Amino acid sequence: MPDTRPAVLVLSDVHPHVAEALAERFEVVLVERSERLRIEPATAERIRAAASSGSFNSAWMDQLPHLQLIANFGVGYDGVDIAHAVARRVIVTNTPDVLNDEVADTTIGLLLNTVRQFAKAEQWLRAGNWAGGPYPLTPFSLTGRHVGIFGLGRIGKEIANRLQPFKVKISYHTRTRHPDVDYDYYPTLKDMASAVDTLIAIVPKTAATHKVIDAEIMRALGPQGVLINVGRGWSVDEDDLIATLGDGTLGAAGLDVFYDEPHVPQVLLALPNATLLPHIGSSTVPTRHAMADLVANNIIRWLDSGHAITPVPETPLKR
Length: 319
Ligand code: NAP
Ligand code: 8YV
Hints:
By secondary structure, the protein is an alpha/beta fold. The protein folds into two domains: about 5-100 and about 285-305, Rossmann fold (3-Layer(aba) Sandwich); about 100-275, NAD(P)-binding Rossmann-like Domain (Rossmann fold, 3-Layer(aba) Sandwich), CATH 3.40.50.720. It is built from twelve helices and twelve strands. It has helices at about 15-25, 40-45, 60-65, 80-90, 100-115, 120-125, 155-165, 190-195, 215-220, 240-245, 265-270, 285-305, and strands spanning about 5-10, 25-30, 45-50, 70, 90-95, 145-150, 170-175, 185, 200, 225-230, 250-255, 275. The chain has a seven-stranded parallel beta sheet with strand order 8-7-6-9-10-11-12, sandwiched between helices. Helix 10 (about 240-245) links the parallel strand 10 (about 225-230) and strand 11. Helix 5 (about 100-115) crosses helix 7 and helix 8 packs parallel to helix 9. The longest helix is centred in the last third of the chain and has 21 residues, at about 285-305. The radius of gyration is 22 Å and the shape is elongated. The two termini are about 30 Å apart. The model has no long low-confidence stretch (mean pLDDT about 95). NADP nicotinamide-adenine-dinucleotide phosphate binds near residues 75, 175 and 202.
């Protein structure tokens, strides 16, 4: 007997819990990523919603004539062709809030690791060096730092909350002042970079954030300066970063995100003052499960009631 339930497309690289949670109620169509989705036109006709992680392009949307909603696995939805979704009146949802704590914890870990070199010190110990004398003193400390947070949204605020017990001074830059916090506000990134010695970036990938952390910002942070990026690699000029870390104009950097993931420039890998993580901000079993739940629940709620739980601001549409 043919399956008459609404069909949901699930890209095969999405967390497996999404397909499990949907399978009881809907026909799940699991498809590999490829230039064109390998999917029968008759099946494509039946698809009402899609779950995706990362990119979802206009050609795929156009292969699915009755697509109503794309549920993105991740709070950043820069991989979805949002203009095309708006034009097609397709709702896009993301996974805000459920990962705030995890990403903020990762950020603090990355910051401490960048200034105190814990990963390197452990490698040094494991390599049997300790008997030959103590590990060299680290040039930097977190004590007494002035931290500027670039992006004080859901995750940025959790980072600030976690920084308070470290007794560092906290400032922030966003496009608009946030009256609910009393950290010093800087209307420009340049002014904030000149005032602080540590910059934490947690902004989305948009036209306005492309390579905004460039040599000028790195020079403003200075030789004692530390840059931490947990937002998107898109926001940092990696050539400028390699140059300023290389000549000591910038003290150190800790990165969880890169311009062309998963490709990390060889020169960056070789720099001793760079601490590098493979985009693991939210990568724990419980947090990824919570993200998967929210992806599935957005689809279920939409197909049941015509309301999405967490639509992105560009598509606050209802059925
Ligand atoms: P959010 O709540 O929307 O916060 C974004 C913040 O960035 C807001 O404070 C916003 O303030 C500010 N902002 C946006 N554009 C700006 C600009 N041009 N100049 C200055 N400030 C700007 O988002 P979120 O949930 O905190 O997530 C932020 C980003 O983190 C995501 O989009 C994603 O790219 C990244 N992320 C990375 C990981 C990871 O694993 N490394 C995990 C989760 C998220 P105003 O609107 O007032 O300017
Ligand atoms: C995930 C992220 O690594 O939520 C985001 O925007 O960058 C991370 O939580 C990613 O989205 C899932 O692949």
